[in-house]
């Protein structure tokens, strides 16, 4: 399968459609800094948000279409296949590296994490968002003897790897990164996971509160804010 061509077609069709509330929540955790890298930048919407806040935003993506979308938003994208090689930057180049829903699409996760740590300056921030395979909806289906494959969920068919919060935390700590904050995104718009009444105002508020305080069980995506040792 030609993944580059597949993702070119994907981003050509998707354009700028994205869950902006999720991106705003992720962006709210970005620390102070000047040079920022978005790995697997996709359509560049997140990078555009960060650029508007004053960051100089570099980006990488497998897809040439994604890179064009990012460039149109003022980012500095480079097309690169991270499963075939490393990041094309010198060590300790960036103050901040952000990975938004990207690692689950990788064949080789460990080398990508190693590269992210390499290009991050000492004391820099790594902000990571991943789909939560330990979400109660997945657990419930497994208890019933079923592994659901559904779009927009942690079991989306495009996901090559699956992550829990605790395993991801250990992977970061093994690379010398200290996790300083954890957050969770409910993504209640995902109808495949949530009945309609989850979007009723009171239920929405309560469930969003639960997702942010107990992300391992209630969040569709978890966010880890980690810092490299000075």
Kindly describe this structure:
This protein has 230 residues and is of the alpha/beta class. Helix content is 36%, strand content 22%. The chain has nine helices and seven strands. A seven-stranded mixed beta sheet has the order 3-2-1-4-5-7-6, sandwiched between helices. The termini are far apart. The mean pLDDT is 96.
Task: Compute the separation of the termini in Å.
Answer: 42 Å
How many alpha or pi helices?
Answer: 9
Please give the radius of gyration in angstroms: 17 Å
Overall structural domain count: 1
Named CATH topology: Rossmann fold
Give the spatial strand order of the biggest sheet.
Answer: 3-2-1-4-5-7-6
Helix content: 25-40%
CATH architecture verdict: 3-Layer(aba) Sandwich
Would you identify the CATH H-level superfamily? Vaccinia Virus protein VP39
Gross morphology: globular
| Proportion of residues in extended strands | 15-25%
Largest sheet at a glance?
7 strands, mixed
Order of helices and strands: HHEHEHEEHEHHEHHE
Overall pLDDT, averaged? 96
**Unreliable segments (pLDDT under 50, ≥5 consecutive)?**
none
Given this structure, which CATH class is correct?
A: Alpha Beta
The helix-and-strand class reads alpha/beta
Which assembly state applies to the chains in this document? single chain
